[in-house]
Amino acid sequence: MAEWGKGDPRWIVEERPDATNPNNWHWKEKNATQWSKDKLNELLVGLKVENEQFTCEVKELKRCEGEASANNRKAKLVFLYEWHIEGKWEGWISTGENRTKYEGGFEVPNLSDENEVHELTITFSVEKTKGEKLKELMVQKGESLIREKLGEYIRSLKEEFSQGLILPTKTSSTTNNSKITTNVNVTATASKPSSNPSSSTNKTSFDTRELTLEDTFKCSRPELFQTFTDLNMVRSFTQNSVSKYECQQDGQFSLFGDNITGTFLDIVPYDRIEMLWRFKSWPKEHFSHVSLQFRDDIEQTKIIVQQTGVPEQFYDNTMEGWKRFYFESIKATFGYGARLL
Q1: What confidence category does residue 24 fall into, taking pLDDT thresholds of 50, 70 and 90?
Q2: Do 34 and 101 lie in a common domain?
Q3: Reduced 3-state DSSP string for 257-285
């Protein structure tokens, strides 16, 4: 498997088109503080918590103090954020003639990159004792809704500010990036390939096997999906070993010194990628069928690789290649093997 990349481009200082940050080696930072304040207000203000008797609504964030940034160092993304949030909510009885409004507050003192969403402290208060029932509603239902919104903030931060942090190399400046499709407007219209991955080429005269692999990554499903569809991210975890990557239906790809080639068949955003895939030393014109499936797991994302039509004699090397040159490289490059700092 050492033949895949033939060398380690991380140790080659490339000539970049803008003469900066060769191979994304140097620290680069984006300030996300103001964006974060706007996003937290957007997500939390107006949030309603209801049951059959009562309605509560977040009216404002009285305090939103902290900072956030997105950073790239040695082609690894690091997200730093720390926030202390205090908000005001109003509640009232939904039924009957009593429309008295009661005011209360909530506090999140430890929204930071050091804590998972489920570890956040969220407390509630109410100004009048008659509003205790409303406070109970906020505790029972409001806490989970606020926690969900804060998780959405973290996901949005990583998705929004990962763009442009990993810079293109000299070779990428001449690549037609218009063929790279990463947003959710991609539609899955390609027909399914036949059960025999080589049915469109010569009939096989060798045994093939089906390969199935699973692994988990400490990131969201959109983040992991983007790792396989964003050209700059693919360049990063392959150590700039990309000759072609047209991530769209019928688009072609060539990686690791043209040792891995194929065609994209079907792309369902954040859910599935299907492709014809072959290794250079396989029998001539023989392609396997690869399906990458992305699944939410507890605080992480699972990827399932199903590959049919792998030549028997290359089965072990192919499995090792997925682990080493895809899974392990992605984790090392983007920090998805452990919780992001």
Answers
A1: very low
A2: yes
A3: CCCEEEEEEEEECCCEEEEEEEECCCCCC
